[in-house]
Every structure is written in structure tokens, then in C-alpha cells.
Amino acid sequence: MLAMQGVAIVIGFVILGWMFAVHRRARREQKSFAEAFSFFPLKADPPPRPACWLAVRSVSPEAVKVALGLNRAAPCSWVEGLAGSHEFFISPRVHGGWVVVTGLGLPNPSDDVDATFLFLTALSRKLGHVQFFYAEKFSRHHGWARLDDGCVTRGYAWTGETVWNQGNQTLPETETGLKTFDYGECTATILDAETNFEKVPQLAARWSLDPAEVKLDSTRQSIGLAGESAFI
Q: At 76, is the secondary structure helix, strand, or coil?
């Protein structure tokens, strides 16, 4: 009887040992599988490119906030800010001193080119060098401008026809293949509109930066300010 009990105990230990070995082997295989796929890390989606944005040079985000009359400002992530759901989003300084501004509060030439001009010149008087970019996805309307101390050095906008053409065409415009047309010139084609729409980010990268391609250096750079303007 005792011999049978001893055999049963030995068999039990053998089964436990076998189960433990199987468990360890399964864990090793799972770890090896995870390590194999760690060579292919998941990439986060790039931030969206807004349809309309400003690039302001050599100022602080606080100065932009004051110039816009922003109140009830709260921290806002870079990705959320570029999505454009706020009235205004002000980025931290990036790429050596540029502040990006996006949001529903920015005017655009498709709605009112005069309001766009007045907004930009007023803001430039306060902040100095201001750049404006507009590339509307569905209509392919587009535009860009550079201002210094309230004076337009270059401005262009097309909304089915040329509604703004001021200053001399810059070298980056020519080199990127942008096509501009005079007031009343009706030779622009759908292909021209498509080409210009696609090349606005390239011009922005040449003049200052493309917000969708900004590489953030730190967590601090990934947080800006979002709020409403008391002036709107």
C-alpha cells in the first residue's frame, strides 16, 4: 500500500514538473515573439495640416496671445491644435523661433479677402514679421502672404479667380513651380489650382515651416495655448 502511495506521489511530481517546464517554454516563446516585433515599432500618425495657418517670427507665444487678445487660454496639445477645432491655437516656439497660429478665428480669402488683408496687416503691426498660408482641401482655393511691420511684401490669393496679387513674386514661389495670375486673368485651369494647392506646404517650408512636418524637440514643445479672442 505504501509502495503504491509512493508511486502516486512520484507521478504527481513528474506531472507538476512537466507542467512547469511547458509554462516556462511558453513564456520564452511569447517573449521571443514580442522581441521580434519590437524591431517594427508602431508609428504615431503625423499631425494634420491645417487649411489655414500663420507663422510668426522671433516673438514669444505670450506676445502672440496678447496681440490676438486671447482670453480663457488653456494648454492644448500640438496635434489637437493643428486639428483646428479651437478659435485660436498658439504653438510654442519651434524651428529656431517660429510660432504657429491656427484655428477657426483666422480669416481666409474665400470668405472675405479684404478682412484677411486687414487682419494680417493689423497683426503684423503688433508682431513684425507674419506669414500667412491658405490651402482649402475641397475647393482647392489657396493663398499666401508675407508682411513686415504692417506692410505686405508679398500677397497672393486665388478663390476661383485671383482676388489678391500684391508685391513681386518671390524666388521660392518660382522654384516650387507655383503659378500666379493677374486680376481678371481667366487662364487658370483646374490643374493649375490643384498644383498650387499641393505646393503651398512646400512654399511654407521654404519661407518658414510646414506645421505638419515640424519635429518637436521635447514634451514642452508639444503643448501650446488655445482660447478665444476678445477682439473677434
A: strand
How far apart, in whole angstroms, are the C-alpha atoms of residue 197 and residue 111? Answer: 17
185: its cell numbers: 486673368
Q: Helical H runs in 58-157?
A: 61-68, 78-83, 109-127
pLDDT (tens digit per residue) in 102-130: 999 999 999 999 999 999 999 999 999 99
149, 125 contact by CB (below 8 A): yes
CB neighbourhood size of 33 (10 A):
10
Q: The whole model's pTM is what?
A: 0.78
Show me where the domains of the chain are located: 1-42, 52-229
Smallest Cα–Cα separation from 115: which of 129, 132, 135, 101? 132
Quote the CA–CA distance of 17 and 11 in Å, as a whole number: 10
